[in-house]
Amino acid sequence: MSELATIATGVNLVWLLIVTFLIFFMKAGFAMLEAGQVRAKNVANQLTQTIITLVVGILVYFAVGASVATIVGELTGAASLDVAGAFTSVYAPTDPNAWANWLFGGVFAIAAANVVSGAVAGRTRPRMYVLYTAVIAGVVYPVADGLVWSGGWLAGMGFHDFAGGAVVHTLGGVSALVGAYLIGPRRDRYGPDGTPNVMPGHSITLAVLGTLILCFGWYGFNVGTAVKVFAVQDGQLVLANFATVGRVALNTTLGMALGGVGAGLVAWHRTQKLDTLYLANGLLAGLVGVTPIADAATWPGAVLVGLVAGAQLPVVFSFVEHRLKVDDVCAVFPVHGTAGMLGTVAFGLPFVTVNAFSLRTLGVQVFGVAVIVALSAAVTAVFFTAAKAVNWARVDADTEHTGLDVAAHGVETYPEFGDQERIGVPDGGVVPDGGRPESDIELVMAYIRPDCLGEVKQELAEAGAPSLTVTDVSGRGSQPSTTGQWRGEEYVVDLHQKIKVECVVADTPTDDVVDAICRGAKTGQKGDGKVFVLPVSEATQIRTGKTGTEAV
Questions:
Q1: Nearest-CA neighbor of 313 among 280, 356, 272?
Q2: 493-507 burial string, b = 16+ CB within 10 Å, else e?
Q3: What is the pLDDT of residues 49-100, one digit of tens each?
Q4: Burial class of residue 87 in the structure, from the number of CB atoms within 10 Å of its CB (0-12 exposed, 13-18 middle, 19+ buried)
Q5: What gap in Å lies between CA 61 and CA 145, rounded to an integer?
Q6: Do residues 66 and 142 touch, judged by C-beta distance below 8 A?
Q7: β-bridge mates for residue 446, sequence order
Q8: Residue 329: CB atoms within 10 Å
């Protein structure tokens, strides 16, 4: 009997820690998702906020949050209140392995705090976010945890939230909406007449990468909530709540996939384009929707909830942006807030779960969601209002214009793009009539279409060009502007992607190099580019110290 109990305990602990580490890895997903959706000048700030959430959130949850959850559960539930015991269970448990359960709760707490970060990006003071992370991890999330998961008031009523659709996601999404409303939109986000101006994020690549990391980590959220693999019953080793883990895994996957389908279809209907970002956000909305019911949903129920959670995303985001005038940078409220509400309430709807339908169950779910919404909205409103009153909430206009990376952190995420190349005519250069400045060394600099690079390289090789430097750039010339799309909103693209080609020539005739570039880059359409020739006053070969034409 004792051997079986030891095996069960060991396996359960290993499983709990594995899924905890999986949820922890979601921090990388949050970092990439949010960094991709902000402007390049605010990327380092957004990454810093993710680290702040980790450091401050986990420490505050350890210091007070875990105990608050236990106290709220006992205070509002059937258990007798034992404040001293609540703190003892965190700092001096009789079984040191109990700290594994604390860590599992801790990664949930920092996930709730991280949800808010994406909505208020690009204009929030770092010090304010430090404090708000502490409020989420130390007060808001622990109180919701106590009411639902630690035996509190809502748990006694029969409120069901399997893995955090309300306690984590609705809570975080509503906090994000209230915070973004109170802190105000980014500078120039709305015109004088209230029309929203599109501000595309700097990297769709990072946004999609972050999405896929979050999708992977979500299995830790949902499947991992079945924290006990084995139990000992009548002297035998049996499956504990792992008995239905297959249902949880299937429903999680179906909800994710159908969320992408729902968001993609609605975006296509609205714009006649398959919007990449809406498709990615739809995966997350579907996951949020199925999270509270993953243990009880039928597979058709998971399909329905995932589809609706994804489909509401473009509609709700448009309402928040155009009607409420709230600048929710990363679409946090429709992804986490409304999707979490829909999924949690769906537990009480007929045919969605394996449970028999009853109006009481539906009423309890609606009431529980309302309590979580009121809790998160009230605390966030008080905190942000107080932070605004002491000028701690928002950066000043100059900082916002410059970007928080430089102003708040003293770094540039892409410093190599900040260097400006300055090339001029050498002193004493003589310009003959109709010719170029006299120089033994010249720099041929061309801006061409990216797809013409292969042909240009071949032509230059045949012309005997001795050197070649290639850089990705963007610019504007005679090529007409195009229309881009960012989360369903169109904007004008007048800076086009180009390739900058540079050749320093001495022995090879400059005109031959120019002709070679023109042959390789010409398509006959506007936007083929231009070639410039500039004199080079001096050249030095680093390895040998040779100068002048010998260096070239």
A1: 280
A2: eeebebbbbbbbbbe
A3: 999 999 999 999 999 999 999 999 999 998 888 888 888 889 989 899 999 9
A4: middle
A5: 12
A6: yes
A7: 501, 531
A8: 25
**pTM for the whole structure:** 0.83
pLDDT given for residue 102 in this prediction: 94
φ and ψ of 213, to 5 deg: -65, -45
Element (H, E) at 340: helix 339-346
In DSSP notation, 462-473 reads HHT----EEEEE
Maximal CA-CA distance, the chain: 104
Q: Could you tell me how far CA 296 lies from the centroid of its own chain? A: 29
Q: Whole-angstrom Cα distance, residue 145 to residue 72?
A: 8
d(CA 263, CA 272): 13
Residues 6+ apart with CB under 8 A from 496: 474, 475, 476, 479, 482, 527
Per the document, the length of the chain is 552
Closest CA to 287 of 348, 214, 362: 214
User: What would the two tokens of residue 83 be?
Assistant: 């404040």
d(CA 496, CA 516): 23
Contacts of 197 (CB under 8 A, 6+ apart): 188, 189, 190, 191, 491
User: In 3-state terms, what secondary structure has residue 454?
Assistant: helix
